[in-house]
Amino acid sequence: MTKNVRVRFAPSPTGPLHIGGVRTALFNYLFAKKHNGTFILRIEDTDQNRYVEGAEQYIIDALNWCGMPFDEGPGTNEKFGPYRQSERKPLYKAYAEELIASGNAYYAFDTAETLDAERKQCEANKETFIYNWHNRLKLSNSLSLSAEETQAKLDSGDDYVIRFKSPQDETLHLKDIIRGDIKIDTNVLDDKVLFKSDGMPTYHLANIVDDHLMEISHVIRGEEWLPSLALHYQLYKAFGWDAPEFAHLPLILKPTGKGKLSKRDGDKLGFPVFPLLWEDPKTNEVSRGYKEDGYFADAMVNFLAFLGWNPGTEQEIFTLDELIAAFDLKKVNKSGARFDPDKIKWFNHHYMQEQNNEELADIFKNSTPELADIDTSYIAMAINLIKERATFVSDFWDLSHFFFVTPTTYDEKASKKALKESTDDLMKQLIAVLNANTDFSVETLTTEIKGWITSNEISFGKVMMPLRLALVGALQGPDVFDIIYMIGKNETVKRIEKLIATI
């Protein structure tokens, strides 16, 4: 690729960053890093009515947690700043007026009541209201009014918007990296508002101007912006600017595969749709986040990469660097990608096995009051024995509690299976075997106890099941000899004696 790659992730700070937005940021990030380019964060806050306090910082925190820090953006390397559109407000009016001067846009003075009446009239006629070439000369705008009438309205302070003048009877030939060639009949396009009556630009004008001024080379965004592609191409043409290359990512679908994934789906099926926990500053409603639910950032990133992209190989586990090396927009699918809550758990389980046991022990200890006085190194040893069966740190206690506390009860079903008439006598003999051993290594324990069972022609189940029941309180857990080694001889004998007393 010869051009200098510059891509931007441009979310609106209207609430928490949806998982679909994280996927869009990820694909921009991977593309930028693949081509030694620049990943830019731009905050598109032109709609001040929907602005939510704290949302911008949430977006930044989410990107950082995912390991995708931006190269340029608010407060960072502001080469083309400012990076908040609300702070760029003075720029846009001049560009809107430039389009009016070139005949590509016009002032429209229509009131909301007038447009509503027109819309209702169309509905009555079973038509769709479109403000464009077929009716604009019948409405109140600088195309239907004389220059004097237009200037008089401007001078008197009448409310107005600036609309793009969409051409008539033309066919647009557009290109999309993912979707190929696209043809659009301009007769079906409406004259979009570029500049609002409140003095702020719409997304359409602001993002085109900013992309041009920030020298954006590729616009990688969600499929929901595909209907705007025709207008954006026309705006670049109207300004006489070279357009960036476009790539529209497929939708992320509900787990059923039907319809776009929403927060409601997560609430209904019990999984987050946001990267981090979010507390709405207005309603105090709390929404779950993947981080707080115990997912590793690497697992979520790996999972998201496969929502719409396929490397063309059987490999599923990728480090971030491997994703960067393998990523190609031409391998992104056109069709929607089904969100599978079980698949991200699969990824998290894998990444759990890759984690450092000492670091996991710190997290486990800090979240579990029962471990406050337990040595972290001991906790790490226990985690090493059980994490193969864990998906989240929150699974650790159920899988390992017997390493830290003596069982107080025994599973009823397991007891019926494990306890026989001979159990009392066999457990007493086992205590004698344990007490006779001075070397309490796993290897010696395994050899001595299994040797005693074999030489006395005892069924392994008659010894090992009640022994596990005594140590764990149930017929589950890692290797019995690992448990004995971890808790030590005295605690092991104590637990066996307690089982005998219970019998």
Automatic annotation (TrEMBL):
GO terms for molecular function: ATP binding; glutamate-tRNA ligase activity; tRNA binding; zinc ion binding. It catalyses: tRNA(Glu) + L-glutamate + ATP = L-glutamyl-tRNA(Glu) + AMP + diphosphate. ATP binds at K263. Its main location: cytoplasm. SUPFAM superfamilies: An anticodon-binding domain of class I aminoacyl-tRNA synthetases, Nucleotidylyl transferase. The keyword Hydrolase does not apply. A motif ('KMSKS' region) lies at residues 260-264. Keywords: Aminoacyl-tRNA synthetase, ATP-binding, Cytoplasm, Ligase, Nucleotide-binding, Protein biosynthesis. It comes from the Bacteria. A motif ('HIGH' region) lies at residues 11-21. GO terms for cellular component: cytosol. One of its GO terms (biological process) is glutamyl-tRNA aminoacylation. Coiled coil: none annotated. Residues 4-346 form the Glutamyl/glutaminyl-tRNA synthetase class Ib catalytic domain. InterPro entries: aa-tRNA-synth_I_cd-bd, aa-tRNA-synth_I_codon-bd_sub2, aa-tRNA-synth_I_CS, aa_tRNA-synth_I_cd-bd_sf, Glu-tRNA-ligase_bac/mito, Glu/Gln-tRNA-synth, Glu/Gln-tRNA-synth_Ib_cat-dom, GluQ/Sye. Residues 372-500 form the Aminoacyl-tRNA synthetase class I anticodon-binding domain. Its EC number is 6.1.1.17. It is found in: Cytoplasm. The keyword Cytoplasm applies. Monomer. Catalyzes the attachment of glutamate to tRNA(Glu) in a two-step reaction: glutamate is first activated by ATP to form Glu-AMP and then transferred to the acceptor end of tRNA(Glu). Belongs to the class-I aminoacyl-tRNA synthetase family. Glutamate--tRNA ligase type 1 subfamily. This is Glutamate--tRNA ligase. The lineage of its organism: Bacteria, Pseudomonadati, Bacteroidota, Flavobacteriia, Flavobacteriales. The gene is gltX.
